[in-house]
Specification:
It catalyses: Hydrolysis of terminal non-reducing beta-D-galactose residues in beta-D-galactosides. By secondary structure, the chain is α+β, with helices and mostly antiparallel strands. Helix content is 20%, strand content 30%. The chain is globular, with a radius of gyration of 25 Å.
């Protein structure tokens, strides 16, 4: 058993220790790649790996916990220890991380008047149940129990959200009650207001700073904060932002490798650091986060490449080698190795063998009826798409339809044909519709959850509740009598679909699911799905949701780890913009808006 202490320095078994860490999110990386990534982190010259633990992934439905496959945190910890790496673990209820709702589960939104990240009893009871399931499993992984975990996080950047210290103390007590004995810490921006609001320095909870530039001044601010509070603690940057995340419709973020390398050298000279990110990975499924900027929702991309030291596929970049060289020059005798590489290949082009339009698929899935529209959290997993349907009397003249409280993006279908698209970012405006024949009009509204806000005060915004939150007005009245069908692309949903023979066309009247059977004689590398000819939607492979694509870019491909491929593969493409999906192309290299 080892002892880890935080005094004027970090001490492991009474020997001074500086932490050189890199962030790897096990939930953004296929498990078959964990070991190689951990090796490459050690090869860089690091001795520690850091990861968040996303609550919403491990408790997808209230009271149902999942730690299998890509969610197997404990296997990841075992592999880290096998590589000789220590672990910084961040199991706080909220993680930010450009992850949907900052890691908070969507089902919290169905609880009336619940206030997240506070002493609200509904919220704390949910956290307590989650911690009672998670933390006892982590006890044997602590450094004083023979495991690799050096310390754990209480809350994340809470000083940028609120300042209820009673809430932070409740989390502290819950962690200790569930057997967490290693040192605890908080992480906040390295300025006084954030540190005062988000830390528990009076309770001897270690304080760390997050920043991506101006290393000397940020470390100076942290040191001055310690001095004012009579603490002699080591300096640590818990998140050194070596890159940045990307948003749909914007340019890819880049930072010069030598700029990052110079900062890392400064960090290593003065204290300890964690590179955020070492490898970013992928926002598989519908787990991308979203920001609200100037009143506009800005969802993040499926790729979480982050311009990190390893690219989205796990291969070292120029930034990796620049930082490795900077560490070698700064720390005499540091142990480093050559990193390992991953292969990728183009597996070819494939024709579809099945298709269903939105109405056909709806008939094969469960439908829930209600007088007024239900939200995503009320009806299903809270992610993906929700299809609302009702029938209107045809008065044989134009009528006005208004979506009240839309979150986030809606396609309006009249008699099975898309007539309008509206988003939360649009000013609330009416949509004119009519039908030439028939006594009734079939109204369908497909609402997509583009991703929940993951940072800032808007974390508690009404827009976090997805769907038609306020209802639908026809002229001057609210329409009643709805059926709703969840398209959340879980394995259970996909298993219920029986595909018909596809028809070939250049323009589809409504969203469509297209099925491909892809036979591979040999699987000898990762690959990329070319989405550049499509509009918008998502793709599933063998029941696993690869994530969203969108023609506005900047990414035009979806990354596919080799570990997801089999000799016989089933792809399902859900295209919502009316573009015909006539072939599936697996290419060797990623494409972006600037290089395809």
């Amino acid at each position: 058993m080892a002892s880890f202490q935080i005094k004027e320095q970090f001490y492991l078994d009474d020997q001074p220790l500086r932490l050189r860490s890199g962030a790897l999110h096990y939930f953004r990386i296929h498990p078959s790649q964990w070991s190689q990534d951990l090796f490459n982190l050690r090869a860089l010259g690091c001795n520690t790996v850091e990861t968040y633990v996303p609550w919403n992934l491990h408790e997808p439905q209230e009271g149902r916990f999942d730690f299998a496959g890509i969610k197997d945190l404990f296997r990841f910890l075992d592999l880290a220890q096998e590589q000789g790496l220590y672990v910084i673990l961040r199991p706080s209820p909220y993680i930010c991380a450009e992850w949907d709702f900052g890691g908070l589960p969507a089902w919290l939104l169905a609880k009336p008047k619940l206030r997240v990240r506070s002493t609200d009893q509904q919220y704390l009871m949910a956290v307590q149940r989650y911690y009672h399931e998670l933390l006892p499993r982590l006890q044997p992984y602590q450094i004083d129990q023979g495991g690799p975990i050096l310390m754990m996080q209480v809350e994340n950047e809470y000083g940028s959200y609120a300042n209820e210290h009673a809430y932070l103390r409740q989390l502290l007590q819950l962690m200790r009650h569930e057997g967490i004995t290693v040192p605890l810490f908080t992480a906040d921006g390295a300025w006084d207001q954030a540190l005062d609001s988000g830390s528990l320095i009076g309770d001897d909870v270690f304080v760390t700073g997050n920043f991506g530039a101006d290393v000397t001044n940020n470390f100076d601010n942290l040191a001055q904060y310690f001095a004012r509070n009579q603490r002699k603690w080591p300096l640590m940057c818990m998140e050194y932002w070596d890159g940045w995340f990307d948003q749909w419709g914007q340019s890819i973020s880049k930072r010069p490798p030598q700029e990052v390398a110079a900062d890392v050298a400064t960090l290593a000279k003065r204290g300890s650091f964690n590179l955020y990110m070492f490898r970013g990975g992928t926002n598989f499924g519908f787990m991308n986060g979203c920001l609200q900027e100037q009143g506009q929702l800005r969802p993040q991309t499926t790729s979480y490449d982050y311009d990190a030291l390893l690219d989205e596929a796990g291969n070292p970049t120029a930034k990796y080698f620049a930082v490795q060289e900077a560490l070698a020059q700064t720390i005499p005798g540091i142990e480093q190795e050559q990193p390992r590489l991953r292969a990728a290949r183009a597996y070819g082009e494939f024709a579809p063998d099945g298709a269903l339009d939105l109405d056909q698929a709806t008939q094969q899935l469960a439908q829930i009826s209600s007088q007024y529209p239900l939200t995503m959290a009320e009806i299903g997993s809270g992610y993906g798409y929700l299809y609302y349907q009702t029938e209107l009397i045809n008065y044989h003249h134009p009528d006005e339809l208004t979506l009240v409280g839309l979150a986030d993006r809606a396609q309006v279908l009249i008699n099975g044909e898309t007539v309008a698209v509206q988003t939360e970012n649009d000013p609330q405006k009416s949509i004119t519709y009519s039908a030439a024949t028939g006594a009734q009009i079939r109204l369908g509204i497909l609402v997509e959850n583009l991703g929940r806000i993951n940072y800032g005060p808007a974390l508690s915004a009404p827009s976090q509740v997805k769907g038609l939150v306020g209802g639908v007005q026809i002229n001057n009245h609210y329409q009643s009598g709805w059926t709703q069908t969840a398209f959340d692309f879980t394995p259970e949903m996909l298993a219920r679909l029986v595909f018909a023979k596809p028809t070939v066309g250049s323009k589809l009247a409504q969203p469509q699911l297209t099925h491909f059977t892809v036979a591979l004689a040999e699987i000898d590398g990762d690959t990329y799905l070319d989405c550049s000819a499509w509009g918008k939607g998502c793709v599933s492979l063998n029941g696993f949701n690869l994530g969203r694509y969108w023609h506005q870019g900047p990414y035009q491909t979806l990354y596919i780890p080799a570990g997801l491929l089999k000799q016989q593969n089933e792809f399902v493409v859900f295209e919502t913009e009316g573009r015909a999906v006539t072939q599936l192309i697996l290419v060797e290299h990623p494409k972006t808006s600037t290089n395809h």
